[in-house]
Amino acid sequence: MGAALVSAAERAAAERGIHLLHAGVFAPDEEAVRFHSSAGFGPRGILLSKDSGAHRSIDPAEAGGGPAPA
């Protein structure tokens, strides 16, 4: 199923003129790294992050993503 989803995403991207796809994989998840590698994804840099400890939910409407759920 995962390979079919990646293929569908690649086709949809190509239809829209998008030629670079990114896949976020957490470093300890070696199975996900192997899967994405087998689909042609490879390392292209390093993503650094910092957890501030301040977590909150964001309403989609607040983020400009459409109406809030009813």
Automatic annotation (TrEMBL):
The lineage of its organism: Bacteria, Bacillati, Actinomycetota, Actinomycetes, Kitasatosporales. Pfam families: Acetyltransf_1. One of its GO terms (molecular function) is acyltransferase activity, transferring groups other than amino-acyl groups. This is N-acetyltransferase domain-containing protein. Residues 2-41 form the N-acetyltransferase domain. Transmembrane segments: none annotated. Coiled coil: none annotated. Residues 50-70 are annotated as: Disordered. It comes from the Bacteria.
